[in-house]
Amino acid sequence: MDLLSRVIGLLGLLSMVSVVSGIGANWGTQTTHPLPPETVVKLLRENGIQKVKLFDADYGTLNALAKSGIEVMVGIPNDMLSSLASSVKAAERWVSKNVSTHITSNNVNIRYVAVGNEPFLETYNGSYLRTTYPALQNIQSALIKAGLSNQVKVTVPQNADVYESSTGLPSGGDFRTDIHDLMLTIVKFLSDCGSPFTVNIYPFISLYTDSNFPVEYGFFDGNASPINDGGTNYYNMFDANHDTLVHALQKNGFGNLPIIIGEIGWPADGDRNANIEYARRFNQGFMSHISGGKGTPLRPGPIDAYLFSLIDEDAKSIDPGNFERHWGIFTFDGIPKYALNLGTTNSGTLIPARNVHYQERKWCVMRASALLDDAQIAPSVSYACGLADCTSLGYGTSCGNLDAKGNISYAFNSYFQRQDQLDRACKFSNLSTITKTDPSFGNCRFEIMIEPYYGGVEGTLGCLHKSLGLATCLFLILLAIL
Ligand SMILES: *[C@@H]1O[C@H](CO)[C@@H](O)[C@H](O)[C@H]1NC(C)=O
Ligand SMILES: *[C@@H]1O[C@H](CO)[C@@H](O)[C@H](O)[C@H]1NC(C)=O
Ligand SMILES: *[C@@H]1O[C@H](CO)[C@@H](O)[C@H](O)[C@H]1NC(C)=O
Ligand SMILES: *[C@@H]1O[C@H](CO)[C@@H](O)[C@H](O)[C@H]1NC(C)=O
């Protein structure tokens, strides 16, 4: 009896691990000081993340993924859609250079090509409506011609705004009226290719844009009053949103099309609702929610999902909001932000990146003798913030409790570090000075950047461009060659 229950327990554990191990992560690279791709690949492997979704097809990134076994979704940025839509040859070149070569000579496990990224997002004003489908067709033809169409599937990651519900309930789901026919054309094509529908779902954005959004409904703890849809209860927004899509697909005759959750996550800074506590709660809640493989009310079974995101990106546009630069489960330098059990490591926690090379331990802060009412302060701070990253300042953020002097120092330092600690980057009208004492305070981290990464030929050019000392540069070039 005892043995039996232990065996059953073990089986349960194994099945849970095998379901959970499917978790993927988005790896974006809009950052001023990226970790070397080899370090990120090691980070993925040590954390048991088996699938990665990219937003382009950067050579260095794909090269680092060689022989890792990690499943890769490569991406085509929206600004390439029109050239790929208008030329089969361009699509063939793209597939040859960015897929075939990596698979055949590099052993990169490429499984998907994401054609565009949320191309029908309402804020794009229809810019990609005419090019997405032809680009999708051309890429698929190119994959067929390259003999890869069984192994590599095309898909189009869509924002959840491509569907809506006339009733507010999942059962009212259908594709947005202005793109309804186009969506059906694409869905039929995906179905014919044996490809999945990819959708990004963001309860955080709902909360961010609607202050009346019931907070608990964004999470997975079952604390929200459920929404009753013809006898089916929905306890969280993810399930309801997902099943709105399933209804939209069913209604149009594609009820069995596989769905991939291309992005799901919660930012940890940059807004009063973007904090460590909520981010942990959401991501852990999501992992537990999908770990049993029970799926959603309309789609029981394992859920194929990519967390958004792996690491913070300090060069992302903050037009959508200051939180944009804080989606990572790891900071820009590969430090876990909070305890998160993906079910994929022995320790049950996230493993930090190893061998990260930081610049010197020195910071740029406001000079003790400088006066707060100095007329140069405001322009200096806005100059620094404009070129650096001040998204951790503001109400409810990690550095939101700094005093005025702390605020100013934070801005100066952020600029100084992003200028790789150049002396002249800490000369704000006699208001600033360099210190060796870490000004970090509580949760507010005065960052030091990673040493600039110079890998391969591009890196070497970057080195010359950044006008490092010639000796340093030659040394780095030597390293790159070796
Ligand atoms: C391959 O992908 C990279 C990165 O997205 C892009 O810059 C390049 O133009 C692509 N190559 C071709 C031949 O289209
Ligand atoms: C979309 O249109 C709005 C209003 O006309 C404009 O402010 C915005 O810049 C446009 N966005 C794009 C991506 O063209
Ligand atoms: C800089 O400020 C210090 C005191 O804060 C002052 O003694 C010095 O003259 C100032 N230098 C310039 C160039 O304004
Ligand atoms: C610090 O900066 C933030 C964001 O710019 C601002 O909201 C806050 O009021 C500032 N605090 C002080 C004490 O100046």
UniProtKB/TrEMBL annotation:
Q: Can you say what this protein is called?
A: glucan endo-1,3-beta-D-glucosidase
What is this entry's stated membrane topology?
Lipid-anchor; GPI-anchor
* Source superkingdom: Eukaryota
Q: Member of which family?
A: Belongs to the glycosyl hydrolase 17 family.
Q: Give its E.C. classification number.
A: 3.2.1.39
Q: Does the keyword Translocase apply?
A: no
UniProt keyword annotations, A-Z:
Cell membrane, Disulfide bond, Glycoprotein, Glycosidase, GPI-anchor, Hydrolase, Lipoprotein, Membrane, Plant defense, Signal
- GO MF, any single term: glucan endo-1,3-beta-D-glucosidase activity
Compartment(s) where it occurs, according to its Swiss-Prot or TrEMBL record: Cell membrane
Database matches in Pfam families: Glyco_hydro_17, X8
User: What InterPro entries does the entry give?
Assistant: GH (IPR017853), Glyco_hydro_17 (IPR000490), Glyco_hydro_17_plant (IPR044965), X8 (IPR012946)
Q: Where is the X8 domain?
A: 362-446
Q: Which PANTHER family match?
A: GLUCAN ENDO-1,3-BETA-GLUCOSIDASE BG1-RELATED-RELATED (PTHR32227)
Chemical reaction(s) catalysed:
Hydrolysis of (1->3)-beta-D-glucosidic linkages in (1->3)-beta-D-glucans
Range of residues in the leader sequence = 1-22
Set out the biological process GO terms recorded for this chain's protein.
carbohydrate metabolic process; defense response
Q: What cellular component terms from Gene Ontology apply here?
A: plasma membrane; side of membrane
